Each structure stands twice: as C-alpha cells, then as structure tokens.
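for the writeup, i need someone to sanity check this before i put it in the appendix. the sequnce is what the collaborator sent (i think, or maybe the updated version? ugh). structure was predicted straight from it, no edits. if anything looks off just tell me and ill rerun, i have time this weekend
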Amino acid sequence: MSPRDASLRVSEVFHSIQGESTRVGLPTTFIRLTGCPLRCVWCDTEYAFTGGESMTIADIMAKVETLGCTTVCVTGGEPLAQKACLPLLTALCDAGYSVSLETSGALDIAEVDQRVSCIVDLKAPDSGETDRNLWSNLDHLTHSDELKLVLASEADYEWAKSVVVARHLVERCPVLFSPVPDRLEPARLAEWILRDQLPVRMQLQLHKVIWPGERGR
C-alpha cells in the first residue's frame, strides 16, 4: 500500500490566520487530527477528542491543494497519536509546503521529518498533565522548532521559568509563554517576564482576538 493510501481520522481542515507560534499572523491551512491521550484541564479543543472523518493522505493533500495556501499546520488533538501522521507530514514537505506540527510533547518527535517545524507544548503543573512530558524530546529540538508553555498561575510561571533556566531552553529554540484565558491575566504574565528579564516570547491567541468563540478559526 502506498503511504498516500494510509488513513487518518480528521476533525477539520480549514484556512485561517495562524494565532500562535513565531508564525503568528500568517495565512495558514490547518489540518486538525482527531484524538488525544491527554486531558489538560484548560483544553480549548475538546471537540477534537472524538468524531471527525476518515481521510486518506491523498484525500487530505487534495483538500489542502484546493485551499491554495503554502503554509500548513498539522494540529489536534494530539496529531502524533495517529501513526499515519508521520507520512502525512513527509508528503506535505515533499509537495513543497512550509509545515509546522503542534504537539503536546508527550509523544516522541524523533521520527518527525526534519523539514517540519515542531511546536512542542511542555505541560505546566496546572494543566494536570506535567507527568506526561517526554523530556527526551528536548534533545531533538533545533532552532527551527519551538517550545510553548501555557500557564494558568504564578506557580506555573515559576515552574516554567525554572525549567527554561535549568535546561537552557532558549539556547535550543524559541520559547513562548502563553496565559490561559480567564485563568491568568496577560498583563501579569508580561510583568513577571519583564521583572525577571526572561528571554522568552510572550504570546496571546490571535485567532481568538479576531474571531472570539468561533470554531474552525
């Protein structure tokens, strides 16, 4: 069977503005895969845990082509929970797309195509999933990858700061801190970063500013 015949469970494929990462603001085609083994307490995509439709890689590629955007983000759920995610990523790269992967950091990224920019989400304590962090993933990061830490409290921030400093993460790749909406005021997070002169990038979810409450954006 050709890799393009492999099937994945897909929640949605849509064209929007990238709301996070250093690619923020770029028109992007999103491929949201169904399923996730984690249950972060602040998750904003619970609808992607189940459902979706079965699509072959060839089907997905055809859909992406119709949207006409050269920047593609594969997200979830947790996309790496589906084995066929890896050949999908390679197919997208082979087709000339600029590809990023948004992953929880709980699953191994070692086999991800090196042309893909991995956006790895380290789970802070208030997520309820810190024990799921696969720390060996840090060894596979390059300067084209990114680390994202979503923070819900000052305790989360102090944990994130200690990890960033102790593991010299800003020397590996860009590091981004995000506040959990309605849990941590963005201004407070900004003040802590400035106070500690922490060389990280703060980000908000731009798509939620533009289209508050809308799915598929």
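The chain has a mean pLDDT of 95. The domain at 3-210 is CATH 3.20.20.70 (TIM Barrel).
thx in advance!!
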